[in-house]
DNA sequence: CTGTGTTTGACTAACGTACGTCAAAAAAAT
DNA sequence: ATTTTTTTGACGTACGTTAGTCAAACACAG
């Protein structure tokens, strides 16, 4: 009825408990033929080691280190706060969470933090990736040291990471285009894009998806080259104001990074009737009120809480070499209109 | 450094292990004063019982029973399939999942199933609720028997359920209105609603939210009284065709239940140029291709996998009397356009 | 056949908790 | 002061696993 134990395996394989243990934990001193007998018995019985009992016995606890960007970006600030909360409850599951903050958009700093994590001998590292050769190298070294790596929010290309947890940013860009295109059907014109930095993969991917759909499905709307605001409100304000003055026929704006306070400032200088339709990322105090006031039309969001939860589940599975349902890492891009604000 | 154990509590409270155990498990024969000493020590140390070790010791396993509607509804079929998968992996967590199917929209049948679950002495019941006095009574009896109850997808009003897992259906209706309203801005006209049955709470709530936003934000669009298709394709086809003939100026359709094959059939009889904008629920083979063909404009969806996962987590927490993060039960309504299909 | 090295089994303690038994200690009743 | 009752402690066993020691059994070379 209930799950088979090592005792059952031993009995079926006709060996002692010790031998089963030797096979199970890869200890030496077992003849190939015997090992085979044990393995067959395990398969036959459908034996799966009881991870909880095993952890109890070896006094194991999982040390997981998060590396996330510092700075004023409110999304990352929320992430940090979220981790605080998780650190408390994760202890119940024998999981110790530590966090280090690194300068944003800085590959070198990130790589250094990864190296420190390796020396601290943690079991796994969860990182918000910045694209750079040093980072990729550091990740390889982590893996070589047997440390699992999961990327969060922003992925690494062709990296050795075990998993990515976050939204599909290309799909997010496509969604933004699908919405903005439909919203702007009434009056053709130009579309402006405000990005943060093209050094982070999520921004690059969002732009890619956005332009794909815009070109294919809404050819009457001309997409302007993106301006890079570095997620800073003042710079976004200035850059967007310039664009809006240069092109008075801008009917839509897609902001795929931070600095939405600046975005709103720039928009507020226009008459309500002439304002473009606006789709932005990340639900914050600013973007929420902007939605309510009708200045923004839609906000795309990723649920940090779910992302952190997923990252932890995946980490544990990676460390235990247990397969993970691929859907666990897939976080859907949430869409907020004025009408479904939580 | 590491978590305090019962031994630590015993030492600090200056009592024996047995006494701590008596307090911890509510056994008799402990003086009030002593119990107080123990409780103080636990608080002081921040002691939390190690649930995994406790379960190991008492050979506990969680028996959780799901009661879901039978029938052709593809959403419920997916739910059943999802449970199959979960049943496998849940065993790793000492969780045994059983499922019983009941006729849809049938309070009496549901109540009977709940009674059977009570007699089977399971630890928790997860149900897709149908609104009825008998069901509410059966839920109360479950609770009285110490069995936890969680509603899934469709909630019960004023029930004794421990939690609801699913999307906010009022918000979903509001979202549908927000989208459909914006999509239909170009040409004012009428909006048709196709429902399944007004006996299930989710449909009622979706309609409510939809009409709220339509009336408030899009007064130029007139919302027709909903037709009830009972989630059956043929009936939906017939009813919608009638509506479209009676009101040639229908510019938008919101289908908040099942039977989307019938919906599509009815729409296909109209010239592409004259077709209304369409927002429906549940991503299926039908709705997916309809999106790709441009017949549907948006599909609202709830992620069954996440819902089942959440329900199980919440169940375990309820049974263990551990607090649950309220965000665990909140499933966001996913919005699919042609552009972000997975 | 002996000696050497390898493989295997039997046994023990531990992880943190649950739960039972029995006797000792303390408190309450006589 | 003695008996009765209640409270407490000491101890053992168990859950399924890890991890160790030690001796017995075995294989194989010389």
UniProtKB/TrEMBL annotation, chains A, B:
Signal peptide: none annotated. Keywords: DNA-binding, Transcription, Transcription regulation. Residues 4-58 form the HTH lacI-type domain. PROSITE patterns: HTH_LACI_1, HTH_LACI_2. CDD domains: HTH_LacI, PBP1_sugar_binding. GO terms for molecular function: DNA-binding transcription factor activity; transcription cis-regulatory region binding. Pfam families: LacI, Peripla_BP_4. This is Transcriptional regulator, LacI family. The lineage of its organism: Bacteria, Pseudomonadati, Pseudomonadota, Alphaproteobacteria, Rhodobacterales.
């Amino acid at each position: 009825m209930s799950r088979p134990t090592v005792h059952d395996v031993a009995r079926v394989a006709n060996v002692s408990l010790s031998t089963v243990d030797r096979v199970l934990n890869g200890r030496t001193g077992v003849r190939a033929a015997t090992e085979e007998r044990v393995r067959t018995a395990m398969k036959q019985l459908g034996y799966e080691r009881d991870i909880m009992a095993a952890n109890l016995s070896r006094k194991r606890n999982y040390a997981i280190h998060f590396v996330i960007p510092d700075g004023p970006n409110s999304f990352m600030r929320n992430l940090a706060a979220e981790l605080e909360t998780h650190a408390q409850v994760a202890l119940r599951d024998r999981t110790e969470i530590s966090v280090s903050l690194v300068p944003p958009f800085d590959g070198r700093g990130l790589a250094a933090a990864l190296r420190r994590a390796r020396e601290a001998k943690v079991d796994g590292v969860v990182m918000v990736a910045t694209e750079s050769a040093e980072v990729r190298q550091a990740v390889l070294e982590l893996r070589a040291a047997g440390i699992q790596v999961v990327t969060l929010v922003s992925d690494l290309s062709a990296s050795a990471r075990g998993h990515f947890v976050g939204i599909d940013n290309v799909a997010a860009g496509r969604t933004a285009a699908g919405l903005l295109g439909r919203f702007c059907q009434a009056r053709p014109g130009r579309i402006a894009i405000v990005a943060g930095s093209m050094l982070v993969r999520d921004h690059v991917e969002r732009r890619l998806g956005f332009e794909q759909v815009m070109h294919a499905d809404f050819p009457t709307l001309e997409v302007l080259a993106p301006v890079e605001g570095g997620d800073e409100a003042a710079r976004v304000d200035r850059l967007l104001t310039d664009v809006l003055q240069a092109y008075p026929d801008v009917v839509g704006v897609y902001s795929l990074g931070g600095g939405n306070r600046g975005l709103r400032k720039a928009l507020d200088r226009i008459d309500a009737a002439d304002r473009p339709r606006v789709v932005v990322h990340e639900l914050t105090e600013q973007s929420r009120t902007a939605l309510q006031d009708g200045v923004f039309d839609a906000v795309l969001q990723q649920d940090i809480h779910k992302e952190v939860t997923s990252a932890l589940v995946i980490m544990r599975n990676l460390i235990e070499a247990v397969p993970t349902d691929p859907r666990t890492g897939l976080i859907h891009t949430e869409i907020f209109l004025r009408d479904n604000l939580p």
